[in-house]
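STRUCTURE:
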């Protein structure tokens, strides 16, 4: 019987990381429940609840004390970066040229 096996641990895409104050924070796994909560927080942010914007970042990278000290401009920049990275991810680079790539003549 045919079977499709999906390895949920592997991915073709580079992990998304955010560097803040010299520390690197990987983006947490985003699943359906997280997406739903982000949507709820987005609605709250649009109503003027800026605390919801900070909570959204906590969902993405975890709770850290420095998040409360981030300027709103930094928070927006981080959020925009994460959204762009999710929408248009870059695949991991291979060590070899892809098909159709010309070999160098040395």
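SEQUENCE:
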């Amino acid at each position: 019987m045919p079977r499709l096996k999906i390895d949920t641990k592997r991915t073709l895409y580079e992990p998304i990381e955010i560097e803040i104050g010299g520390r690197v924070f990987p983006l947490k796994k985003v699943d359906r429940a997280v997406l739903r909560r982000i949507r709820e927080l987005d609605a709250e942010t649009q109503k003027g609840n800026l605390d919801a914007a900070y909570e959204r970042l906590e969902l993405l990278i975890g709770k850290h004390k420095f998040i409360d000290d981030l300027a709103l401009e930094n928070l927006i920049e981080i959020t925009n970066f994460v959204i762009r990275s999710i929408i248009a991810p870059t695949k991991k680079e291979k060590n070899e040229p892809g098909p159709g790539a010309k070999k160098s003549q040395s």
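REMARK: The first strand starts at residue 17 and ends at 20.
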